[in-house]
Amino acid sequence: MTLATKTAPQEQLEQFLVKSGAQSFLDPAFAGFMDERDPLKQLRDEFVIPTRGQMAPGVDRPDESSIYFCGNSLGLLPKAVSRIVQEELQQWGEGGVNSHFSHRFGRPWVRIEETVQHQSAKLVGARPEEVAIMNTLTSNLHTLLAAFYTPSKASGGRHKILMEAKAFPSDHYAIESQIRWHGLDPKDSLICQAPREGEYLLRTEDILETIEKHGHEIAVVCFSGVQFYTGQYFEIEKITKAAQAKGCIVGWDLAHAAGNLPVQLHDWNVDFACWCSYKYLNSGPGGIAGIFVHERHANNFERNRLAGWWGHDKVTRFDMVNEFKPMSGAAGFQHSNPSVLTSAALLGSLTVFEQTSIQDLRSKSLLLTGYLHHLLTNEFSNQVLEIITPSDPEQRGCQLSLVFKQGKMIEIFEGLAKRAIIGDERKPDVIRFAPTPLYNRFEDVLQFVLELKKLVAEIYN
Ligand SMILES: Cc1ncc(COP(=O)(O)O)c(C=O)c1O
Fold this sequence. Notes:
Layout: H1 3-20, H2 28-37, E1 47-48, H3 52-55, E2 67-68, E3 77-78, H4 79-95, H5 117-123, E4 131-134, H6 137-148, E5 160-164, H7 169-181, H8 186-189, E6 190-193, H9 204-214, E7 218-224, H10 236-245, E8 249-253, E9 272-275, E10 289-293, H11 340-353, H12 358-379, E11 385-387, E12 400-404, H13 409-418, E13 421-422, E14 424-426, E15 430-433, H14 442-460
Parallel strand pairs: 2-13, 5-6, 5-7, 7-8, 8-9
Antiparallel strand pairs: 1-3, 4-10, 9-10, 11-12, 12-15, 14-15
The structure holds pyridoxal-5'-phosphate (PLP).
C-alpha cells in the first residue's frame, strides 16, 4: 500500500474544494458541489428516507429528511423491495402452492434462491456456485463451522480456533459453543487475538505472529471482515494466505463488509464466509443471509455437513429418498426451502446495486467517509472525541466509530437522536456513524458535523 493511495481521498477532496470555489470544507457550497457532481446521486431516490418528524417526533422542519448514518446496522428501505414483496404476496394469494412451479412474475418459488445468487456473488467477488443465499447469519456460521471445524485433539492434531477478542458476541458464542460441541474446552481451544495494551485496533503483524506461533494447532481462523465496533477492515488476503500456509482453514464473517466495500473471496482463496443482508445490503430486518464456500471444496463430500433437503440434488429432491446426495458447491450446504418473502426483499435491494458497481460505490464512499473524517478531526478537540476507526481509508469502510470522552456518549447520542440524526451507540463509549454511498449525501455529513458542534458546545461547555 503506497502513501499516495492512502491519502488519495483527501487529495481528491482538496482538488474538489478548489473546483467548487467554496471557502472551506465547512462551506455549504462545497457539500452542494459534491452532491451535484456525484455520479451516483440518483440512487438516493431509490430509497425511502425517513423524515425528521418520523425519526424525532416534535422536531422542527419535520418534513425534511433525517440524517441516517445507520446503514451499518439496518439499511434503509429500497422502494423496489416494497414492490417485489407485494408481488410475492399477490402471487401467494392468487396461486397458493402452485406458485412453487408457476409464477406470474417469473420467479417460481422452487428456485427463488437463484434470483439472488448471481448479484450476491458479484458483490463478494465470488463465482455464483460458490454462494448460497439461505438462513440467517449466526445459523450460517454454525453451518459452516459444522463442516469446516473438525478438531482432532485426541491424536495431538489441530483443535484451536483463532478469532478476534472483541468479535460481535454472537460470533463468540457460536464459536465457543462449537468448541464445546466437540467435547473441548474454549480455555484450551480458543485463541482470542486482542489489541495491544492501550490500543483499539488489531495489528496485522500481531495476527500473523499468532498464526506463525500457533498455526500448527489451529484448525480454523475466523475473523470478521470489517470489525463491528472499530470499523477496522482486516487484511483478508494476507491473513488468509498466512493461515493457509500453516494448514489452517480460514473463514470470514462479512456482516459489515458485504455491500460496504469490494472483497474478492474467490481470488483471495478464502475457504468459507458468511454475511447478513440487512446492513449495507438493505434487505430489511432479519433478512436472509449468505454463505460462500470456495470452489475447491465444491465436491468434497467427504467433509461431513449438516444436511437438509434443499442441499440435496435438485433433480431428485422431490423423489423423497433417504439417501442424501448433496449438490455441488455452496448450494449443497442449504437446509430448508428458503424464505420467499425475505429473498424477495433481498432481490428488491439487489436491483439497486445492479444500477451501479461495488467499485463505484467504494469510490464515492472513500470521499464521503473521508469528508466526515476530515471534518471530525479538524473541528473537535481530542478532549471531546477520538476516532478509533483507522485513519487510513484503505483499512476501513463507510463506518467511523467515535469514542466520546468524559462519559458523555449517551448524552451525545440522545441529543443527536432528538435532532433526527441517527447513528448507533455501542457501550461503553462509542457511537458508530456510517455514511453510505447509496443514499447519503455530502450535505448529510456537513449538517451532521454542524449539529454535533452545537451539541458538543452545550454538553462539554
Ligand atoms: C459481525 C456480526 N456477527 C453476527 C451478527 C448476528 O447476526 P444475526 O442476528 O443475523 O445472526 C451480527 C449482527 O449485527 C454481526 O454484526
